[in-house]
Amino acid sequence: MKQQQPLTIVAGRLVTPDGIHDGALRLVDGLIDSVGVDPQDGDEIVDAGGRLVVPGLVDLGVFAIDKPAFHFGGITRAALMPDQSPPLDLPSRVSYIAKSGKPDFWVHPLAAATRGLEGREIAELALMREAGARGVATGRQWIADAGVMLRLLQYAAMLDMVVIAHAEDAALVGSAVATAGEIATRRGLPSAPPEAEAIALARDIALAEMAGARIHFRQVTTRAGLALVRAGKARGVQVTCGVTPAHFMLSDLATVEFRTFARLSPPLRCEDDRQAVREALADGTIDVVASGHDPRGPEDKRLPFSDAEPGMAGAETLLAMTLSLVRDELIDLPRAFDLVATAPARLLGAPAGALATGQEADVAIVDPDRPWVIQSAKMEATAGNTPFDGQPTQGRVAQLYKGGVAIKR
Amino acid sequence: MTSTPNPPHAARYPAGGLAFPHRDLIGIGQLERHEILFLLDEAEQWVALNRQATKHENLLSGLTVINAFFENSTRTLLSFEIAGKRLGADVVNMHAAQSSVKKGETLIDTAITLNAMRADAIVIRHGSSGATQLIADKVDCPVLNAGDGQHEHPTQALLDALALRHALRARGAAAEDFTGLTIVICGDILHSRVARSNLLCLQALGASVRLCAPPALMPVGIEAMGAEVFHDFDAALEGADVAMMLRLQTERMSGQFIPSAREYHHLYGLTKERLDRAAKDALVMHPGPMNRGVEIDSEVADMIDRSIITRQVEMGVAIRMAALDVLTRRARGVAGWGEAA
């Protein structure tokens, strides 16, 4: 549905890239017309009542399109990982997916880097770009063959597509489901050293530098890994990275009861690594916070820990968890929305993710303090596999607009 | 010999069901020291019974015990089966080697099925850590862990403690617990649930535990559980009172962990010469099955005055009888153990 009538949101606290401004936001023809002006005659008026007016969230790297959950979480766009069945490794699949969320949700498909995501043959990236792919992703797996990875990065650089990579050395990880350490040892869980991440990062950063490619690591979760990203940025490599709330909220202590909702990939790390993630969010090393949304039902999760599939339903909790970083005074509000909207939109080259004239009118009105309790059994997502079950939190979306049109919830 | 379930040292424990207030036996990690001693003391009467010509009691008469083994086992299954039968229970064995059981809902469904058949106790062995707890959460009867992945094997640790106690008492020691003893556990610690359960149990009873394995077979962070870590077996054995040998669990290994069995024996095999580094008269234990000539030489395994390997097997039946008796007391309405279910 197209926006029929100009809409002005008044009395909001607008979170823009250059700070918070009290005022109005005018949306016309599906675009942001102006920021901070008075409404004009004939406009529909919405009173934000002093709440936050923010860009709709752009979720970089999800595994399922789950509209009710995304809308609950204020997410208006998501980049879909190619790990689908079948994988997004053909232009036809990409173009089908690119249209699948419209009109009230936009899906940005990520093209599979290799055919079948097997890490051997590079897929038809240029044709998939034509079909609507906004980036390339290696999928849940690391590409073990350095030669394939180098050629992939060179090719993606030529096409100016960002490569979204998974950084865990596959040989070290094997069939591990936990991070090596006291918790995994006490529980007898197959585990891999956390250095598997830094080893993979070091190689891929070097290859990206060689290829002059843009590389984005969807999740960097260890102190050593973050140090490599920080150093790469300092010497001018086009490297960015993200994380999901699980790795700044939880450590491997969350797995002590064999709770499979805490079975994630990469696995939860030790407390020192969690602190390192929080430091990297504060100092700007981490560019993106994403939900990693991966709803999984009992057939994947009601199993012994090492037999369960990894993943969490994260769309509904992304905003509240990110706002907790603001409440903890780790980051400020503009930085919070840079992490969940502006930066991911920039990486994807999508004209959204910020309250600025000419951007798509994807806007949320947010009550940042509203308390609620995360309850696995009562989630909008197709499955309630949240590692935050039972946790009280704050911050809810009051109203969401996609292209200037209010989304009924 | 008395067959009433009166603990021999009643004053050492809280009264009645408070002596063992758990519905299930999932791991040593959940037990207090006095609960471990309670099970050991309870087992003594069954050691005595098992040495009689007629080895039968009717304590569990009319109760159904299901041994659900999702992983191959001979000795543990047999030991549980004999334990249940000697107490008069109806014992049913369910073999569901993991290859034939589809993963996924099947495990939970199996648990629900067993529950619906009104089992009075379920004994579980499964290849995945935490599987026993998962099943215990879904059923209404006591669950006994007969080994879950690389996590715990509590009855093995208890029977090892009982065997050690008997060996020490046979030498005239009081052996109320194992304070002052140094025990070496050597072998594939990484893949061993026996090592984890024994570490917890032996420490709870006062022993110092040394773990010995090549680095690739030593789990990261095990020092945090209070063990002293060695890679040099000769150094680990120095002055030790007990050497507990574990086999290489090649079935759990993905990739190569040691170059060869011959080389492993060279570094970690318990030979008679090596045993001389330990304390005089040091005892030798092995949970079985043994790979003679790999982790232990035959002449050591068969030393009459030092090896208590067969005694471990004997104690296994008694410990499992004690566990089945104690865990079903509530359902049987034993006085002081709560209402009958």
Task: Give an overview in words.
Chain A: Residues 72-222 form the Dihydroorotase catalytic domain. Chain A: It holds the Pfam family DHOase. Chain A: This is Dihydroorotase. Chain A: Keywords: Pyrimidine biosynthesis. Chain A: It comes from Qipengyuania mesophila. Chain B: Belongs to the aspartate/ornithine carbamoyltransferase superfamily. ATCase family. The complex is a heterodimer of chains A (409) and B (341). With 409 residues, chain A is of the alpha/beta class. Chain A has one domain: Metal-dependent hydrolases (TIM Barrel), CATH 3.20.20. Helices cover 29% and strands 23% of the residues of chain A. Chain A contains 13 helices and 18 strands. In chain A, strands 1, 2, 3, 4, 5, 16, 17 and 18 form an eight-stranded mixed beta sheet that branches. An eight-stranded parallel beta sheet of chain A has the order 6-7-8-9-10-13-14-15. In chain A, strands 11-12 form a two-stranded parallel ribbon. In chain A, helix 2 links the parallel strand 7 (75-80) and strand 8 (106-112). In chain A, helix 4 packs across helix 7. Chain A starts with 6 loop residues before the first strand and ends with a strand. The mean pLDDT of chain A is 96. Chain B is α/β, with parallel strands linked by helices and 341 residues long. Chain B folds into two domains: 10-153 and 314-332, Rossmann fold; 180-301, Aspartate/ornithine carbamoyltransferase (Rossmann fold, 3-Layer(aba) Sandwich). Chain B is 35% helix and 13% strand. Chain B has twelve helices and nine strands. In chain B, the strands form two sheets. Chain B has a five-stranded parallel beta sheet. Chain B has a four-stranded parallel beta sheet with strand order 2-1-3-4. In chain B, helix 1 (33-50) crosses helix 5 (154-170). Mean pLDDT of chain B is 92; it is low at 1-7. The interface between A and B is medium-sized, with 25 and 28 residues.
Question: Strands, helices and their partners?
Answer:
The complex is a heterodimer of chains A (409) and B (341).
Chain A: E1 7-16, E2 19-28, E3 31-35, E4 44-47, E5 52-55, E6 57-62, H1 67-72, E7 75-80, H2 91-98, E8 106-112, H3 125-130, E9 135-137, H4 146-158, E10 163-165, H5 170-173, E11 178-179, H6 182-187, E12 191-192, H7 195-211, E13 215-217, H8 223-234, E14 239-243, H9 245-249, H10 271-283, E15 288-289, H11 298-301, H12 318-327, H13 333-348, E16 363-373, E17 392-402, E18 405-406
Parallel strand pairs in A: 1-4, 1-5, 6-7, 7-8, 8-9, 9-10, 10-13, 11-12, 13-14, 14-15
Antiparallel strand pairs in A: 1-2, 2-3, 5-16, 16-17, 17-18
Chain B: H1 33-50, E1 64-69, H2 75-86, E2 90-95, H3 105-116, E3 121-126, H4 131-136, E4 143-148, H5 154-170, E5 182-186, H6 193-204, E6 208-212, E7 228-230, H7 233-237, E8 242-245, H8 261-268, H9 272-275, E9 283-285, H10 298-301, H11 309-327, H12 329-332
Parallel strand pairs in B: 1-2, 1-3, 3-4, 5-6, 5-8, 6-7, 8-9
Helix pairs in contact in B: 1-5, 1-11, 2-11, 5-6, 5-11
